[in-house]
Automatic annotation (TrEMBL):
Organism name: Duganella radicis
The organism's place on the tree of life at top rank: Bacteria
Signal sequence coordinates: 1-18
Record's keyword terms, sorted: Signal
Protein known as: DUF3108 domain-containing protein
């Protein structure tokens, strides 16, 4: 068993490893991945970083999914949003304690790791220039962390639960408003889970001057990279 765990740490840092009562992740490995964002020195005021759990395929049931931080003297349940995202505490005590992040799912069912997205606004008003800047900031960070090589920002998408009928509109500088079309699909590119309501805002399809106004706060805003 000890040899298997050592092999897991060597080959799959910050990825769930097997445990009898579910999967677990070494907190130190998750901490090292999350701290990249904290140490990133370029502009990131439009970005946020979460620790995210997501199913490896569509057959995995996410209902009742739980993430707990467990140490010798600590057991904390970390709240997950509808997209499987949690705010991971960056705790020196948990790091020194060699704590574990435990997932109540069978080994291999869940992917886990940092997830950067665009910050939502409580007033629901997003200047077009800010969205373009946010997309570029996210792309720059992904390149810094070794991802998204060769891709470009082409837009953003506003993600809602399927049952949420809030509208997303583009308001041109002169005042004309147009409702963006909604589609059903995954929250983010590459996700196995479907069934979210997604509004896609492609930069090339709209004037540079204007703003997006949302009827309610989206679950998340993701960048469209191609």
């Amino acid at each position: 068993m000890r040899a298997a765990l050592l092999l897991c740490f060597a080959l799959l840092p910050a990825v769930a490893c097997a445990q009898e009562d579910g999967d677990w992740i070494a907190y130190r490995d998750a901490y090292r991945q999350m701290i990249w964002f904290e140490k990133y020195g370029k502009p990131k005021q439009f970005l946020q970083n979460h620790f995210r759990l997501r199913p490896r395929d569509a057959s995995v049931n996410m209902e009742g999914l739980r993430l707990t931080l467990n140490g010798k003297a600590t057991q904390v349940s970390l709240a997950l949003d509808a997209l499987g995202r949690a705010v991971l505490p960056l705790s020196k005590a948990a790091y020194d304690d060699n704590a574990e992040l435990r997932i109540n799912r069978k080994p291999g069912q869940i992917k886990a790791g940092p997830w950067v997205s665009i910050v939502t606004r409580p007033d629901g008003v997003y200047p077009a220039t800010d969205l373009r800047t946010a997309c570029e900031q996210l792309l720059a960070y992904l390149r810094y962390s070794g991802e998204a090589g060769g891709k470009q920002c082409i837009g953003v998408q506003f993600i809602y639960m399927k049952s949420d009928t809030a509208q997303v509109r583009f308001h041109a500088k002169e005042g004309a408003a147009t409702t963006l079309a909604a589609k059903e699909g995954p929250a983010f590119a590459g996700d196995a889970a479907q069934g979210f309501r997604v509004y896609v805002y492609r930069f090339a399809a709209w004037p540079e001057a204007g703003q997006i106004i949302t009827g309610s706060t989206p679950l998340a805003i993701g960048a469209l990279l191609e």
